[in-house]
Amino acid sequence: MDLQLLVGLGNPGPRYADTRHNVGFMVLERLARAGGASFRNQGRLHGLLAEVGQGEKRLRLLMPQTFMNDSGRSIRAALDWFRLEPAQMLVLVDDMDLPLGRLRVRAAGGAGGHNGLRSTIAHLGSESFARLRIGIGAPGETPEERRARTVSHVLGKFSAADRPVLETVLEEVEAGIDLIRRLGLEKAANRLNSFRADPPPS
Predict the structure, then answer these.
(1) 46: annotated active-site residue
(2) Which of 7, 172, 185, 198 has the largest CB neighbor count within 10 A?
């Protein structure tokens, strides 16, 4: 996979910092720190952009500032501006259907009820782009509980008890992105999809 653009999905502004919905932003902030890069606002991209690496190893990190439900507008603008294909992009997204501590990589697929992915699919006119789903767990056992608590769950912050697991997950995602760039999506998926970081016993 010729990975050139890494997109983290989330909501802009300090109010939403460190919320479960912004776990994609957390990964990019971590990568930027490790690469000594800083994010700058790019109006034409409707987002914040940082670049890590040089030459052929350069990787662009995009955090859309459009709010989650309109993420696709920023992604479409970035692909057009850098003349990239969706196949050169990986989207990092939170997933309530996966427990915290689990990851799922897919080369393509539907929105799975996620508004950020739904917007991206709409703006690209295609489901053919890679995504790495980062588990944040469900807010209830039954569909009724989940529906009632979804907004407060995704816009809530990780608990102190969740933090060690989250840190392990973010480390694995960082390693996984390096693996995708070196070995390709399929081989990296073997490792990432079998990864498991168990929360501490309650």
Answers:
(1) no
(2) 7
